[in-house]
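Q: What would this chain look like folded?
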Amino acid sequence: MTLPSTPGVGPGARRRPFASKWPAGLVAGLSGLCAACPGPSRGRDAKQQVETPDPFEVSESIYDRALKNGWLETGTVDRDADAGGPAKVRFNISGQWILSHPGLAGRFGAVVFRVKEPAGEGEFLEVALASNDTREARAVKLKPEHCTLLDDGWMQVILPMVELDPGGASFDRIIFRPFRPFGGDWILFDKIALAKATPALASVLESGPLRGKSVRTRVACDQTAAKISPYIYGIAFGDSGWEKLGATARRWGGNRKTRYNWEGSFENAGLDWFFENSSSQAYTQFLSESAAQGSVSALTIPMIGWVSKDGASFSFPVSAFGPQAKTDPWKADAGNGLSSQNKPIAPGPPTRTSVPAPPAWAGEWVSAIRAGDAKGGKRSVYEYILDNEPGLWNANHRDVHPDPLGYDELLDRTIEYGTAIRRADPDALIAGPAEWGWSGYLYSAKDLVTGHIDRRAHGNVALVEWYLRKLQEHDRRTGTRVLDVLDLHYYPQEANVYGGGGGGTDRTTQLLRLRSTRSLWDPTYVDESWIKEPVRLLPRMREWIDANYPGRGISIGEWNFGGEQDITGALATAEALGRFAQFGVTSAFYWLAPSAESASRFGFLAYRNFDRKGGHFLDWYVPTTPAEGVSFFASRDEARKHVVIVAINMVPDAPMVADLDLASCGTVGSVRSYTYVRGSSGFEPSVAADGGDVERPLPPWSITVFDVLLSSAQGPGAR
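A: My prediction, written as C-alpha cells:
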C-alpha cells in the first residue's frame, strides 16, 4: 500500500529549531505525545516562517519513505512499511515494532525520527535499543523535551544516546512500543535515522532540557579526611569469577560453619538441608585461595560447643524418629525434624552427628593456623569471627542447641572462646557476636520466646549494648581483651527486596530497594518493613561502641540488598560500599559474592576496578556536600594529587549533570569519567579532558566514577 506524501516532511519543511528554552506561549489545542512541544508560530503567514535545518547530521538512514541500507523490520503489531511513504503502525494495547540491522557498528549521538500520532492520546510511546543476544538497554519514554512540532501534526523527535545508551553498549535494533494501553489508531513514522555525534548536536543537547538537572557537590579536601579500611570490599566464598572482583577480603562463614570441624573438614547444614553432615573444603585451601589473590581471610570459629564428627551422619533419621514432613530426595532416611503434622520432633543426643568442641578445641585450631603461618612467614587470618548468628542456633542448629540463647550464655561463650583464641594468637583481631539482624541486636533468642523476660532481667538494655558493656568490664578486670570488632549482619527487611540476592524487579520494589539503603545511615528514614522505625545502623553501632566499649571496630559480617541481576542491585551495592567508607567500617562481607553475570558486580567494580586496569577508590575518605537524587562519595590519595569520586544517580527517569567543586583539593589537571548503566557490559570511559571545571552527565539510574588528577594540591594534612 502506498501512503500519500506527508506535508511538512522533507527538505523544504518549515520548522522551529530544537530549542534550548521553550517559548512561554505553547501551542493550544495539541493533545498528542508532544502536546507541550514548541511548534510553528500562529497568527502570522506560514511564508514568514524561517526555515531552520535539523540540528543533527544523519550517520545511518534507517527509514526514509522505505527501509534503507540493509535495515529489516519485524514486530508484533499491524504495520505497513513496504512502499514509498511513511511507515504505518498500529500498536493496539501492546506489541512492538522492531527495526534491525545485523552487524551494526559505530558510535552515534541520537536516534531521530518523525512521527504523526492521533490527537487526544497523550504520552504513550517509548523507544529502546537492543542487541541480538537479547540484551536490552533501558527504555526511554518520549517526553515533550524530546520533540519539536512540525507542520500538519508531525513531530521531530531526538532521543540522545546519553539517555538511550549512555554506557555505549553495542546494539543492532531499535524497538518502538507503547508503555501503557493505547487506543489502537494508526501512527505514521518517517525519516528514522541514527545521528552523528557532532559538536552541533552536543551543543543542542547540552544547552537544552535533555541535559538534565545540575547537581552540585563540594569535595571538601580542606576538611579532615578519614582513612578507609581496605577490608570493606569483602565477600564470602564467591563463585569461580570472584577473583576478578578486586575483593580485598573473604569470609569463611555462614550456617554450615557453625559446626565446621577443622580436624576432618566436616560440617553440618542444620535447618538449611535436613541437619546433614557433609565433607567441606579444607580451611587451609580457603586461606591459600585468598592469599593467592591478595585477599585476607576472616575465619569463623565455632562456639556452639559441637562440630560434625563425619561427612555422612544426620540428626533426624526416619528409622529412629518415624515419618516426617519431608525427607532428603537423595537420602530417604534423612528427615527434616518435623512430624507428619509439621510439629518439631525433640532431637536425640548431639553425638548422633557431632563431637564436643570446647574452647580448648578452638584454641588448638588457632595454634595450628599460627604454626602454619610460621612456616610460610606470613599471617593467613586477618580476623577471627565468633561463630555465626547465635541468636538463631535454636532454629538452625536445634539438633545440638535446642534451647534459645540468652544474654548470659552469649557473654560466657564469647569470653571463653575469645580467651582461647587470644591465648593462641595474642595479636588476633576478634569479632562478634555476628548476630543476624534487627531483633538480634536488641533482644536475645530467649527474649523472643519468653516475651522479653531476658532483657528485663538485664536492666532492659539492648543485647548488643549490654554485651559490649560487660566485655569492657571483663577487659578491665582481667586484662584480657576478647573482642576487637563489633560484628553484625544486615539485610533489608522490606518485602521482596533482598529475596536471597534476587528479590523483585518491578518498579515499586526497585524504588523500595534503593530507599532501603538509607537504613544504613539516615536518621530520618523510617524502615518500610515490620521494623517501622529508623535503623540508622552504622551511626547506631558507633554510638553503642563509644558508650559501652570505646575503641572497637565495626564489621558488617553479611550484607546484600538483592536485585543482583537488576540495575538497582548495582546501585544499592555501590551505595552501601560508599557508606561503609564514609562511616569508617573496619570490614564488610557481601553475601555471597556478586556473580560474573550480575549487575551488582558493577557496584563493586566502581570501587575496585572501574577502568579494567585496577582503577579504584583511594585510601582517604573526603567529605562531600549532599545533593538531591545523587549520592557522591569522594576519596583521595596520600599525596593529595589524585581524587576518585563515585556518583550514583538514584533517579530512574531523569538524567542529571554532576557539577563537582574541587577548588579545595587543588587545580584539576585532567579528568576522565567512567559510566555504568543498565545493559552495559562494563564502565564506559569518557574522553579525557584537561583542566577546568568537572561537569559531566549522569544518566538515569547510573554509576559514574570520576578519576581526577590534580596538577597542584592544597588542603590540610590527612590527619
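Residues 1-52 have pLDDT under 50 and may be disordered.
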